[in-house]
Design a protein that fits this description.
Helix content is about 35%, strand content about 15%. With about 400 residues, the chain is an alpha/beta fold. The structure holds pyridoxal-5'-phosphate (PLP) and zinc ion (ZN).
Length: about 400
């Protein structure tokens, strides 16, 4: 199944050999996995998905492992796309859906990236991984490393949600709490990895987490019978989900599965950490480091996303936008989604509720647009944030 043709730098287009251990390009760009799509198209059809396994590995021909035996899976992906009629009624959206990623293993969409990254680490003979994480990536890395029998070294900000800390420890990872932000955790991993023999699994610093996350794009197309929605609201921290979905749309068009029509891609950030919103509003091509980043939506506390240029390009190419939501509005949105639809969302996903309400109210979107909100995780990971006793 040698479907991967090569790896390619997302910034300078330099080519790299597949089946070798890679981190970034020498120019600093993230490496994308490229497939022999014309050959895949000849043998793999949308219809063949009818009998495919009910998780994200149903899309195996456009996923990176050479050997199916390498796959480390906990049943991730194929999350429900839920019609949200009651919430839609209150925010003025007649065709509103929630893609509920909280139902993944370890209760967030980070499982998608880790199933592919740990699978490839296993295939390439890596034994020890290290990762900086603002929360859910740690839980997912710990879980998949455990399932693969690998050693996981995790560095998290000391004020990370308790659930992520306890979960990662229980899953057998070696966890270090750092007095600082995810950017400080990343620096520690970079400084120590060579000496310790760790493979750096940081967001976008290895090629394979994007590949798992892109399946959110394949799934939404499949669940909508190959007609993409008009708008996608995506809570953007590192932006990997957005980058991955955009890559998926391109691949699917080349496979002849969808048209050239794209959803408006809407990056939702927290008011206390909005580097992408600021760069978008200033028409900048890169984001600036956001000082004193602070928000209870831990996954959005990324002061300087490595993929900033890619994210900004996607927002502009799709005629989307970027919008910041305060923590108070995030929790209001979360309570509304929970009480109207029965979905207890992570604050990151909850931010999309308020964002959608605002962009319909200001007529950026039409009431008849088909809109999908990505709830990237479960509210159960954030009981402190939702606690009514505060
Ligand atoms: C990590 C995370 C995000 C941000 O994801 P990116 O794809 O890196 O932007 C959003 N929500 C939750 C719950 C997360 O854990
Ligand atoms: Zn490059």
């Amino acid at each position: 199944m040698p479907n991967v043709s090569h790896l390619e730098c997302s910034l300078c287009a330099t080519r790299f050999e597949p089946n070798q251990i890679h981190n970034l390009c020498s120019c600093g760009g993230t490496l994308y996995v490229r497939y022999d799509l014309p050959a895949i198209k000849a043998t793999w059809t949308r219809n063949s998905l009818r009998s495919a396994r009910p998780d994200l590995w149903r899309y195996l021909p456009i996923l990176p492992p050479q050997q199916p035996e390498s796959i480390v899976s906990l049943g991730e992906g194929m999350t429900p796309l839920i019609r949200a009629r009651r919430l839609g009624g209150t925010i003025g959206a007649q065709q509103l859906w929630v893609k509920d990623e909280g139902l993944n293993p370890t209760a967030s969409f980070k499982a998608r990236g880790m199933t592919t990254a740990i699978t490839m680490a296993r295939e390439l003979g890596i034994r020890k991984i290290a990762i900086p994480s603002a929360g859910n990536a740690a839980s997912a890395a710990a879980a998949y490393a455990a399932a693969a029998g690998m050693e996981a070294h995790i560095f998290m900000p000391a004020d990370v949600p308790q659930a992520n800390y306890i979960e990662s420890k229980t899953l057998g990872a070696i966890v270090t709490l750092v007095d600082g932000l995810i950017s400080d955790c990343a620096r520690i991993v970079a400084e120590r990895k060579d000496r310790e023999g760790w493979f750096d699994m940081s967001t976008l610093k290895e090629p394979y987490r994007v590949e798992g996350k892109k399946t959110m794009g394949y799934e939404v197309a499949e669940q909508f019978d190959w007609e993409l929605p008009d708008a996608i609201f995506y809570p953007t921290g590192g932006g990997v989900g957005m980058i991955g979905m955009w890559k998926a749309f391109d691949e699917m068009e080349q496979l002849g599965w969808i048209s050239s029509k794209r959803p408006k891609m809407i990056a939702v950030q927290a008011a206390g950490c909005q580097p992408i919103v600021q760069a978008f509003e200033q028409s900048a091509s890169r984001a600036e480091f956001w000082q004193n980043a602070s928000t209870l939506a831990a996954g959005l506390r990324v002061p300087k996303p490595l993929g900033d240029a890619l994210i900004l390009n996607i927002i502009r190419a799709s005629k989307g936008t970027a919008i910041a939501i305060s923590d108070e509005e995030i929790l209001d949105g979360g309570r509304e989604l929970a009480s109207l639809e029965g979905i207890f969302a992570a604050p990151e996903g909850a931010a999309c509720v308020t964002a959608a309400r605002k962009l319909i109210a200001n007529q950026f979107l039409e009431p008849t647009d088909r809109i999908v909100l990505y709830n990237t995780g479960s509210g159960l990971k954030y009981l402190d944030a939702y606690s009514p006793r505060k």
